[in-house]
Structure formats: C-alpha cells, structure tokens
Amino acid sequence: MRRFVLLYFFSLTLPLFLGVSVVQARQYAVLQREVRRLDLVQEEWIESNKRLIAEIGLYSSAERIEQMAVEKLGLMKKQPEDILQIRIENGRRRNDG
C-alpha cells in the first residue's frame, strides 16, 4: 500500500515539476530578451551622450565663443592700442626726507 502511495505521489508531482520548469524557462527567455533590448537602449544613450559631450567641447571653445560674439552680437575684440589704462594711486604723498 505504501509503495502505491509513493508511486502515485511521484507520478503526480513529476509533471507538476516539469510544468513549473517550462514556465520558468519561458519567463527566463522573456527576461533575457528584455535585458538585450535594454542593453541596446543603453548603448544608444551612451553614444548620444558622447556626441553631446563632444558638441559641448566644441561650443565652449574660446574660438567658437569669439566667433559667436562677432557674428551674433556684433562685438569686436579691442586692439592693445585702443585700450586706455588709468592707474589711481593713494592720495597721500610720501615724505621721504
């Protein structure tokens, strides 16, 4: 009698375990596809960020800023002979004698 109970138990639980294994394998495959998709999205974001960083470097260069100041704002760089410097010294005079 005990033998038959164990035989019935194993004959009923074995398909159950196989069914659970199939479900888990399907879930694993779905998750694996999702991970691959997210890896591709991440690679796209990384490439986009690299391009943006390169553009920031280009736009923040001194030459580019000077070019934009001339073209868009009409500003011109002053020549050294056009610059007047005024030096203000302390109003008290020194008495060295």
What would you note in describing this structure?
The protein has 97 residues and is an all-alpha fold. Helices cover 72% and strands 0% of the residues. It is built from 2 helices and no strands. It is rod-shaped and about 125 Å long. The chain starts with a helix and ends in a 24-residue tail after the last helix. The mean pLDDT is 86.
Main traits of this protein?
mainly alpha; 97 residues
State the gist of this model.
The chain has 97 residues and is mainly alpha-helical.
SS-based class: mainly alpha
End-to-end Cα distance: 130 Å
What's the total helix number? 2
* Shape estimate: rod-shaped
Rg (CA only): 39 Å
- Helices and strands, in order, run as HH
Q: How is the main sheet built?
A: none
Question: What value does the average pLDDT take?
Answer: 86
Instruction: State the helicity in percent bands.
Output: over 70%
Number of strands: 0
**Percent of residues in beta strands:** under 5%
Q: Which residues sit in consecutive blocks of at least 5 with pLDDT less than 50?
A: none
Structural topology:
Blueprint: H1 2-59, H2 62-73
